[in-house]
Amino acid sequence: MSITENIMLWHDRKSAGTGREQDDFQPFMEVHLLKTEKPLGAVLICPGGGYGARAAHEGVTIAEKFNALGLHAFVVQYRVAPYRFPAPQEDAFRAIKIIRSRAAEWKVKPDKIAICGFSAGGHLTASTGIFFDKVKADAGDNADNFSSRPDALVLCYPVISSGQKGHQGSFTNLLGPEAVSEHKEKYSLEKLVTKNTPPAFLWHTADDGSVPVENSLMFSLALKEHAIPFELHVFPAGRHGLGLAPEQPNIAVWPELCLTWLKNMGWYTLHG
């Protein structure tokens, strides 16, 4: 059974970055902690929604699944359009910093914090592994002293590329309708992987009609080129936005596959 609470990510509206200041949305983080005496790994979850919304089925239910697998879980309710880059990234980085700053209190292993994202939330997730040393997420408190780099990336049918195989609506929401292809290319993540990008677990369906599987393939190849550990699962068929995929048992095993991958990298949970 997890202990849940909501934590506001920022102290005031000065954190709003780009976007409409009159928008009253305040980004926050949902906390789903397990009762434990020993520190555990944690997963921060980024729902999808094309950077224009936050899909409900890719939030709490995912957190509860990771709880059931023995990991603490958090859901970041980040800013979306009309906010632009780097507003969503600031929210994700701020969430990671808060988790690390309260690791002792929450019984979180500060060096075992993964971030998991779906669709455009996958782009947000992957971008935390790319821009952690470029986007600041400070708020003038103790959390500023902690790293915003995640220890692992979990990418579920992610938006990665802004090119021919990209999901253009996500980039329009993230960068604005006036963004030209040259500007979008700066956020095409398969071209931005470095040796410091964290290890990644990816899954996609081969016939995804909204975000082509090439997004995961290109990112995996970029990881390979930089000798970064990764695991990729391509399932033969399934619609976009499956989440936990309860209607497709062959795909619904992805959280267990992810847990095995994390364990093989030295993570541990209540169950092992």
Write the layout of secondary structure elements.
Elements: E1 2-8, E2 28-34, E3 40-46, H1 60-68, E4 72-77, H2 87-101, H3 103-106, E5 108-118, H4 120-128, E6 152-156, H5 168-175, H6 181-185, E7 200-205, H7 214-225, E8 230-235, H8 254-264
Helix pairs in contact: 2-4
Describe the structure.
With about 270 residues, this protein is an alpha/beta fold. It has one domain (about 1-265): Alpha/Beta hydrolase fold, catalytic domain (Rossmann fold). Helices cover about 25% and strands about 20% of the residues. It is built from eight helices and eight strands, in the order βββαβααβαβααβαβα. It has helices at about 60-70, 85-100, 105, 120-130, 170-175, 180-185, 215-225, 255-265; strands spanning about 1-10, 30-35, 40-45, 70-75, 110-120, 150-155, 200-205, 230-235. Strands 1-2-4-3-5-6-7-8 form an eight-stranded mixed sheet, sandwiched between helices. α2 (about 85-100) crosses α4 (about 120-130). It starts with a strand and ends in an 8-residue tail after the last helix.
Q: Into which percentage range does the β-strand content fall?
A: 15-25%
Helix content: 25-40%
Within the largest sheet, what's the order of strands? Answer: 1-2-4-3-5-6-7-8
The named CATH superfamily: Alpha/Beta hydrolase fold, catalytic domain
Q: What Rg is obtained from the alpha carbons, in whole angstroms?
A: 17 Å
Structural class: alpha/beta
Reported by name, the CATH topology is: Rossmann fold
Second rung of CATH, namely the architecture: 3-Layer(aba) Sandwich
User: For the residues shown, what is the average pLDDT?
Assistant: 93
Mind describing the biggest β-sheet?
Answer: 8 strands, mixed
